[in-house]
Amino acid sequence: MRRGFERRIIFWGLPCAVVLFLFGPRVLPADGTTERATVHIVVKDAETGQPISQAHLTLQFHESGKKLKPKLPKHISYSAKTNAQGRCKFADIPRGTIRLIVTAERHQTFGKEFELEKENQVIEVTLKKPQPLL
Hints:
By secondary structure, the chain is an alpha+beta fold. The chain is built from one helix and seven strands, in the order αβββββββ. β5 and β6 (110-116) form a beta hairpin.
């Protein structure tokens, strides 16, 4: 009887540990909130250095649960477009890993993860022209 119990712990123990590690409660500041920041995106053409107006930005991140009510993180996505100077600002974003995807007409798509670590962080993106078709 005891042996079957031990097998079940071994069988379910590792998957449960992995799930808790990936999606378990995060360490939050004492007041129960996550630190927030503003991220400024600047998009330029790689060849000319000129700003790219109307580039489409998608910012993705995970928002963890409250300290008193741990739960799975929410996947949140914001979209915006750059202004005439190739700039855009996302405010009140939780610090941590963010994923930025940038698309613009007549340019290659850009996608990369960044660590949002400080207030008013600036991320500069240079977009290349598409590769010619053979």
